[in-house]
Design brief:
Largest sheet of chain B: 6 strands, mixed
Shape of chain B: globular
Structural class of chain A: mainly alpha
Number of helices of chain B: 9
Oligomer: heterodimer
Structural class of chain B: alpha/beta
Distance between the termini of chain B: 28 Å
Order of helices and strands of chain A: HHHHHHHHH
Helix content of chain B: 25-40%
Strand content of chain B: 15-25%
Largest interface: A-B, 13 and 21 residues
Number of helices of chain A: 9
Chain lengths: 259, 266
């Protein structure tokens, strides 16, 4: 076969493979969402996943949220002082956190902590035939393993983002007002005046969608982990990298739509 | 001898496979495979690595779908059924996986009771009684509260067997149940399989590499080669057939092992 024909064949095969993979990826989400609303419901599994994704991520969210707010307070106070607008520090910190940094950084942190664990756990179950064991027991593995994680992600991410935002605002206050000398009164006044329900709703929608994306990607990568020695590590790495990329890409598009 | 019907005797067929074909890409793994597993007996699938034993078993427990051919389980054609009908068939099958496939986050009690908790409406007391009875049947009375990681390989296999038996299936499938065990534990697991098969009146279908040791508990032997059943019969019939491939396999010189097909089969 001559070279151009071979090139076309290879290119065509990769396009078909790519479309096939994308189709499987989307059908996986469709199945997970369908089983969320299909009985039997297992609240016990949902609560366990909310604890794993939500409660167990609380400490790291508190830590990252506080320091993010502190950095915003530090840099914001210094920058605004140059324009004589230190009174706007509270508005700057709150809007930045609620609309952008809270959902995005929170999702990245949870993807790294809970998403990687999710991919590794499902990957390990796949490699050790535990997923097959569920199937032969007539238990749907997507309904049992994936749907509770996806729903738990959609519940936990907005709640953790709210915590991130609140501690961030107080972190910004501590540094911006306490250390940098920005006026204390206008900090919270500015927030209550300029932070609208629309801003909060924007952040909430983002967190909700990031919760869906992270759990979807991480469950998919773990569920389809290759049954080989490197299968779990590769699945975990790909899950975190793809989740992080999709969070940032979706953040831009959602930001454009919801602005 | 390759026609399994000739060796069924008076036993009805629990499983009947006809012209089963399965390919992975360009690799043909099952090539018009025919097999009958008589009710109430142990049928053992043996053969060189990559010949398609595990793939055959995965078709029998409906984890894989064939490209063509038919599989009847208790006279029900299962290759094209879907949804609830699959669940009904699966309720009649217990499966012991090569790795045991115990849920490592659960205790042995929770592992064994899992199918009852998820798929039946039995009370907690009834479930506990059934679990303890089944654990006793596999010699694991004192291990209910332990986790899989706290048990030896042989004990994990026993626990996995208890889980496979807990819903009192009619057919038990075993995928290399003695892999990774030393010879003394291999003998103990074989003995346990034979004892529980008789105790629960099961039809057992087992994939095994432990040749010739597994012959001690096998009622029928199916020797697979190149995706087909090459020999089928009682142990005596198969060992006296004088088949070259079988003799080479027995002597540990299985000719024609294909690494690619081994990968596909696993």
């Amino acid at each position: 076969m001559n070279f151009p024909l071979h090139l076309i064949e290879v290119l065509g095969a990769s396009i078909i493979d790519g479309i096939g993979l994308l189709g499987r990826f989307v059908l996986f989400l469709a199945a997970a969402l369908r089983y969320i609303v299909t009985p039997p419901f297992k609240p016990r599994l949902l609560i366990r996943q909310i604890r794993s994704i939500g409660a167990d991520s609380m400490f790291v969210i508190l830590l990252i949220g506080t320091f993010t707010g502190m950095v915003l307070g530090l840099q914001g106070a210094d920058t605004l002082r140059r324009f004589g607008a230190e009174g706007a520090l509270g508005t700057l910190v709150a809007l930045t956190l609620v609309r952008e940094l809270g959902p995005v950084l929170g999702a990245l942190v949870i993807a790294a902590r809970a998403g990687s664990a999710m991919a590794a756990e499902l990957g390990s179950m796949q490699v050790t035939e535990q997923v097959d064991a569920l199937t032969v027991m007539a238990i749907n593995p997507v309904q049992y393993l994936v749907s509770p994680r996806v729903l738990a992600g959609m519940i936990s991410f907005p709640l953790l983002t709210a915590v991130f935002n609140v501690v961030g605002i107080f972190g910004g206050f501590a540094v911006g007002v306490g250390l940098m000398g920005a006026p204390a009164g206008s900090y919270f006044n500015g927030i209550s005046r300029y932070l609208s329900l629309h801003d909060i709703r924007t952040g909430f929608y983002k967190a909700l969608l990031f919760g869906l994306v992270v759990t979807w990607v991480c469950c998919y990568k773990g569920y389809y982990a290759a049954r080989m020695a490197t299968g779990i590590s590769r699945a975990t790495t790909e899950a975190v990298v793809l989740s992080s990329v999709l969070i940032l890409v979706w953040d831009y598009f959602l930001g454009s739509v919801l602005l | 001898m390759a026609d399994s019907n000739s060796s069924l005797g008076d036993n009805a067929k629990a499983v009947e496979v006809r012209a089963l074909r399965k390919s992975f890409g360009s690799q043909l793994v099952l090539n018009d495979l025919n097999l009958d597993c008589p009710q109430g007996l142990i049928t053992t699938l043996i053969g060189p690595s990559g010949c398609g034993k595990t793939v055959t078993l995965k078709h029998l427990n409906l984890l894989m779908r064939p490209d063509s051919g038919t599989i009847k389980i208790d006279d029900v054609e299962v290759t094209r059924i879907r949804g609830g009908a699959i669940d009904q068939v699966r309720e009649r099958i217990g499966m012991l996986f090569q790795s045991g496939a115990l849920f490592d986050s659960m205790s042995i009690f929770d592992n064994v009771s899992f199918p009852l908790v998820e798929k039946t409406s039995l009370s907690s007391a009834e479930i506990a009684a059934r679990v303890h009875e089944t654990l006793a049947a596999v010699g694991l009375e004192g291990a209910a509260s332990k986790f899989p990681s706290e048990l030896s390989g042989g004990m994990q296999k026993r626990a996995a067997l208890a889980r496979a038996l807990i819903r009192r299936p009619k057919i038990l499938m075993l995928d290399e149940p003695t892999t990774g065990l030393d010879p003394s534990r291999t003998g103990a697991i074989h003995e346990l399989v034979r004892r529980t098969q008789r105790q629960f009146g099961l039809t057992a279908i087992m994939v095994s590499h432990d040749v010739p040791k597994v012959f001690e508990i096998s009622d029928r032997v199916a020797f697979m080669h190149s995706g087909k059943i090459r020999l089928y019969g009682t142990v005596e019939e198969v060992t006296r057939a004088g088949d070259d491939e079988f003799e080479r396999f027995l002597a540990g010189r299985a000719a024609g092992d294909d690494p690619d097909s081994a990968a596909a089969a696993s």
